[in-house]
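Incident log, support desk, overnight shift.

02:14 A customer reports that sequence design results differ from what the structure should imply. Their input is reproduced verbatim below. On-call engineer (initials T.W.) acknowledged and began investigating.
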């Protein structure tokens, strides 16, 4: 998960207001996406229709030229314990037609089989996680480490407690670790060798803060907004920490400057029990609904994703757009006005362009949700992102609405499908995502993009007067207490680096490299070298001097 944060974005939005008033239109057009012979121009508007009726695009664009790795249409009987627990025959419902993966070759390490019951009135939930885990590392593991992010005062401000645990039906006592209580270490009865599998059951419960609770640093991603009755439950269950050979489990305390969660792609099955009148939004797709004593059970599958987010409100309305076999669903409150519908249209435009330029979005659905946030303008999760509610209702924040929507849509490529370590290399997804949103506006609103880019260049030049050599490729804790520096260096300088690299290589090589990076690292955690070396391999050039001029250290 990563955030389009308010404080870094204040810089960007100030520039946007300048950018949207830019003068003359550019004298040259933005080059088309790869291949060069494809036409671009403006993306055709995509019709949205209310509720369950999805309208086709009013006009179509050229088919995407980017491709991904081969897919399969049949679902063999799995032998892998992870796939036995999260059966691909169910998981295929979450995938876009033509994008069903070869499940066995994915080598996924976990199936999360979740059952959760949410009581909105009590601001409380409880749940059970049945985890099937296969040790895909090269090390023998004496314990598993789970992250319990809602305990952090910053970003979350809630509570998540593991109340009981067992491994292979044997009760085990775990230990809460880290100063912010966001890790839970579960010792294994016997060490788990590489290639071996185990089954773990965790019982847990959570407390949901109301109206951001007592934390000034809370974002609203784990929160009940009492005015709109909107609940967001991000990272609401224990999630496995990433294990790296030599470094062990990744366990950093949550910092307010940037992203909290690095996680590997896994499979999820969720049975979510909520009151009957709740409008439910989650990562993945709902495959069925059954009655429950206190409401309804919503049955969810996700396909291979890094996380699962949940949103609820009894007052949500929705509108759906269709683009290239993908359902784009906008969920919004009744006072959102036309931007509730526009959220679906704008997201569909972005998805269409990014499909063509980077590679196909693999999932059947993408949800856009209006959520009251603080200290953030947008937050992305696999197959779902949220945009701050005031940007829907305040005309002065129209630019913020558009940039946040496109930015979070781009994160579906750079964070969701292709992941990275958001603590050690936050630039890897944030800089590329910020450039992707600039690219969208270069294609769709070139005058706006020209002013935006010019303003970014002036901001960077001003910053470099006092920080001439600050590297883009710093870890998140380099920016502790320096959120404005984080915004300029990672979002602005990082985006301009990719734009300069595009000009250095030309469109053919630049987009070919992005497509190869996306294709080769589907569902993986890519290292910075994977990205940078792809540009060198595709171009046949040593780009090290170019990288260092921009503060990009391989």
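02:41 Re-run completed on a clean worker. Output:
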């Amino acid at each position: 998960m990563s955030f389009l944060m308010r404080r870094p974005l204040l810089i960007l939005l100030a520039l946007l207001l300048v950018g949207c008033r830019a003068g003359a239109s550019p004298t040259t057009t933005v080059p088309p996406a790869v291949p060069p012979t494809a036409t671009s121009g403006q993306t055709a508007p995509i019709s949205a229709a209310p509720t369950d009726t999805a309208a086709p695009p009013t006009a179509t664009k050229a088919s995407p030229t980017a491709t991904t790795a081969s897919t399969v249409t049949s679902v063999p009987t799995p032998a892998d314990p992870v796939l036995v627990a999260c059966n691909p025959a169910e998981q295929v419902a979450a995938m876009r037609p033509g994008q069903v993966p070869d499940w066995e070759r994915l080598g996924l390490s976990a199936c999360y089989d979740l059952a959760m019951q949410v009581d909105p009135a009590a601001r409380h939930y409880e749940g059970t996680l049945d985890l099937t885990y296969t040790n895909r590392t090269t090390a023998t593991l004496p314990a598993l480490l789970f992250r319990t992010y809602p305990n952090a005062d910053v970003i979350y401000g809630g509570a998540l407690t593991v109340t009981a645990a067992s491994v292979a039906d044997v009760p085990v006592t775990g230990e809460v670790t880290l100063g912010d209580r966001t890790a839970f270490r579960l010792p294994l009865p016997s060490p788990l060798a590489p290639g071996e599998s185990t089954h773990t059951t965790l019982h847990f419960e959570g407390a949901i803060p109301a109206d951001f609770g007592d934390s000034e640093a809370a974002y609203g991603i784990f929160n009940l907004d009492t005015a709109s009755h909107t609940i967001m439950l991000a990272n609401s269950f224990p999630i496995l920490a990433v294990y790296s050979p030599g470094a062990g489990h990744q366990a950093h305390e949550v910092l307010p400057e940037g992203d909290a969660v690095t996680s590997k792609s896994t499979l999820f099955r969720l049975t979510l029990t909520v009151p009957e009148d709740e409008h439910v939004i989650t990562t993945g797709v709902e495959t069925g609904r059954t009655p429950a004593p206190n409401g309804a059970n919503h049955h969810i599958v996700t396909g291979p994703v890094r996380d699962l987010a949940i949103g609820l409100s009894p007052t949500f309305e929705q509108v759906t757009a269709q683009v290239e076999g993908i359902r784009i669903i906008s969920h919004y409150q009744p006072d959102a006005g036309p931007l509730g519908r526009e959220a679906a249209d704008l997201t569909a435009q972005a998805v269409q362009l990014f499909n063509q330029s980077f590679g196909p979005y693999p999932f059947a659905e993408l949800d856009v949700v209006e959520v009251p946030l603080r200290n953030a303008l947008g937050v992305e999760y696999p197959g779902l992102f949220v945009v701050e509610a005031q940007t829907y209702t305040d005309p002065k924040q129209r630019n913020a609405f558009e940039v946040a929507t496109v930015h979070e849509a781009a994160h579906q490529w750079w964070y969701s499908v292709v992941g990275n370590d958001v603590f050690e290399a936050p630039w890897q997804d944030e800089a590329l995502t910020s450039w992707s949103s600039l690219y969208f506006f270069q294609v769709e609103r070139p005058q706006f993009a020209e002013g935006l880019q010019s303003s970014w260049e002036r901001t960077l030049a001003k910053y470099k007067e006092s920080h001439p050599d600050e590297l883009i490729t710093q870890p998140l804790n380099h920016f502790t207490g320096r959120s404005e520096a984080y915004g300029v260096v990672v979002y602005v300088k990082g985006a301009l680096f990719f734009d300069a690299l595009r000009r250095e290589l030309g469109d053919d090589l630049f987009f070919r490299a992005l497509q190869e990076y996306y294709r080769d690292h589907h569902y993986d955690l890519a290292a910075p070298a994977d990205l940078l070396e792809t540009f060198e391999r595709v171009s046949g050039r040593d780009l090290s001097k170019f990288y260092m001029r921009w503060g990009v250290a391989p």
